[in-house]
Amino acid sequence: xxxxxxxxxxxxxxxxxxxxxxxxxxxxxxxxxxxxxxxxxxxxxxxxxxxxxxxxxxxxxxxxxxxxxxxxxxxxxxxxxxxxxxxxxxxxxxxxxxxxxxxxxxxxxxxxxxxxxxxxxxxxxxxxxxxxxxxxxxxxxxxxxxxxxxxxxxxxxxxxxxxxxxxxxxxxxxxxxxxxxxxxxxxxxxxxxxxxxxxxxxxxxxxxxxxxx
Length: 213
Known about the structure:
Strand order of the largest sheet: 3-4-9-5-6-7-8
Strand content: 15-25%
Structural class: alpha+beta
Number of helices: 6
Helix content: 25-40%
Order of helices and strands: HHHHEHEHEEEEEEE
Largest sheet: 7 strands, antiparallel
Number of strands: 9
Radius of gyration: 19 Å
């Protein structure tokens, strides 16, 4: 992708139209269209304006990524109003399985090396509950950078777990759950890890308990 394709990608990532951006942020939809399609050059001022808009819409993205596609890839922030992290206010309809699968496919097209984890215990409640799912991009940085972050962990044993990671002073680490009374193993000390993915997406759902995935 080039810079203008990345601008379009970010807009599609949050599911917002050019017309909506014009109404909310007073950025001409025709100007944005011209930037996205290469009819006008994407200026420094234009990039900074887009950065401001995307951040307000709940996307954490850097100028470096927009310009060159390098550095940290864009992620949804906790404040994102995107449908991917929007909590439902009632039980999902009978076709929610199909909707969820479509949503997951969108996430997979946005990011490579992604891990999807369906939550089936209350170990990370009250924030993460049975019926929710989370997704994260596999992290290749040093593990100490993930201190106090909620992560999907792929253990060397082949098991996947969802825990908060605490990095200790000696650079060892501990995986803990937020609701220890619900877990037979609330604290796991320094397990061999194959892959680890900090959570980027959280789909909250009040799914009917009779609905099977």
